[in-house]
Amino acid sequence: MKPQARVTVVGSTNMDMVVHVPKTPLPGETILGSDFLRFPGGKGANQAVAAARAGAKVSFVGAVGADELGEKARASLIAEGIDVSGVMVTAEGASGVALIFVDESGQNSIAVAPGANALLTPEHIKRQRALIERSDVVVLQLEIPITTVEEAARLAHEAGIPVVLDPAPAQPLPDALLRNVSVLTPNLLEAGQLVGLDTENPDTPERAAQQLSQLGCESVIVTLGDEGAFWARPTGNLRCPGHPVRAVDTTGAGDVFSGALAAELGRGRPDREALAFANSAAGLSVQHRGAQTSAPRRHEIEAALAATTGRALGDD
Ligand code: RIB
Q: How many domains does the chain have?
């Protein structure tokens, strides 16, 4: 096993504007919430920070506006030791912003103004080809144009680099993209939406994962929050048990899962252990506020894993 994976994340960066509320407001309703909080976020940048804190050497490819929020987004990545040479700074659009409500159970509702994220083109990705080809794993999500995601996946796949794709926010996925994906990591809601299955049905994680695998990606992990995760693989399914925790803020838990997973798969850790590691990382992240701010560090994840020894993975 390598000591450290080289992970390249291609994706979004936002500034998260957060209010904690007793419950999510209904249409037409006004609710008094907590003080206003501001955190660096964006699914791509969150994955990058999670992978870096999990121990990987990370490069981030994305786009920010030539404005104060873009400068802050770049600074927070640099502070985590992440290479931002692939971040485009554009005067054509403002930096991405996410408006987030977090309710008393830690669940969130998010609306994103993508701004510069929407201006990240396949041509920019082509210019980052060398970076992609030097990686052990490439990590993607869907807050940038789908054609750009497709180009990054294509370049990685052609170079034999595994691709982890978190299909969030959920949208129809072209078959050509899925064929270039090694590990698709939807949560249960996204998995149900992608294949049209009812998420209340207890068989849905397995059925959705199998159906998504048949669409062309190599394997599918359905994340189940505090109920763990299910991984459908050609070499056999894996199931990871959940670790019930008191969730304060679930924002970014899926990003932490895929970033931590990539950090471990990229250094050659066996699938079973990498899955448990990612699951523990996500479980730790929901116990703190914010997205990037809540991503745990490697020693914290390993300590949490050690504390749950005896509840390790089982073959399905
Ligand atoms: O997954 C959480 C992220 O979604 C937030 O950080 C927000 O920026 C949105 O992109």
A: 1
